[in-house]
């Protein structure tokens, strides 16, 4: 039987160690490469951080499977057994341009059920962590269950891309929501935007295309506090595919789905 408390402590120790390694890299020259297009970047630190976790996990838990963004893990095509879903640096553009506003994101699942969620804001030394059933913590501070809020008083995490001409969504779908909400913010790290919902800094987060490693930890953390994590149709997220993303406080999720998202085709 898996000892989940021990696994949680081990994963937290490794994520802190990886964070220290990243901080030490700040005085070295970054090696930056492009992936699918000129704005899709990866650095040697993204790759090195993923490899750090894989080495540690394979040595101590050889039967666990690992799905990592940079492709050094396993070819995961199902969620059977224990699966680590790792984004070594979420917010690589911020990492390169700002040296802040990025996070390490790790979700650990057992047979598709989220068990451990860790999002580590390395530079601000904020570790959001949850062991399913035991609440969510920001470092040592326990976070409160998410309270209800109306759109008119909500701060919504959203990229300006989605209310300008783009290839995934008609800008007229989300622009009324931008008008009606108290405000919008865009942080450039999906993991941090989900962590901010847990911490009450944001009320909802909407985006059009994310991979499993962007959301694996955030889903566990937000749901543990009573938040709702779905695609833009209000359906459950699939951890083996890309999804549209709508993460929100509980009542707000219903309101936005009914008033704004029902008009979309995706
Ligand atoms: P990443 O930094 O790990 O790639 C930026 O708005 C958010 O979208 C980040 O969480 C980023 O994760 C994610 N993202 C996913 N695919 C991306 C892409 N092709 N280019 C830039 N950001 C991407
Ligand atoms: Ca990336
Ligand atoms: Ca990411
Ligand atoms: Ca990444």
From TrEMBL:
Keywords in alphabetical order: Hydrolase, Magnesium, Metal-binding
Gene3D superfamilies documented for this protein: 3.40.190.80, Fructose-1,6-Bisphosphatase, subunit A, domain 1
Alphabetized InterPro entries for the sequence: Inositol_monoP_metal-BS, Inositol_monophosphatase-like, Inositol_monophosphatase_CS
Domain of life, source organism: Bacteria
Record-linked Pfam families: Inositol_P (PF00459)
EC number: 3.1.3.25
PROSITE patterns xref list: IMP_1, IMP_2
Gene Ontology terms describing biological process: inositol metabolic process; phosphatidylinositol phosphate biosynthetic process; signal transduction
Residue ranges that the Swiss-Prot or TrEMBL entry lists as coiled coil: none
SUPFAM superfamilies in alphabetical order: Carbohydrate phosphatase
Positions bound to Mg(2+) 1: 69, 87, 89, 214
Gene Ontology terms, MF aspect: inositol monophosphate 1-phosphatase activity; metal ion binding
Amino acids binding Mg(2+) 2: 90
Chemical reaction(s) catalysed: a myo-inositol phosphate + H2O = myo-inositol + phosphate
Root EC class: hydrolase
Cofactor(s) the protein needs: Mg(2+)
Xref: PANTHER family: INOSITOL MONOPHOSPHATASE, INOSITOL-1-MONOPHOSPHATASE-RELATED
Protein name per the record: inositol-phosphate phosphatase
Organism: Cytobacillus depressus
Lineage: Bacteria, Bacillati, Bacillota, Bacilli, Bacillales
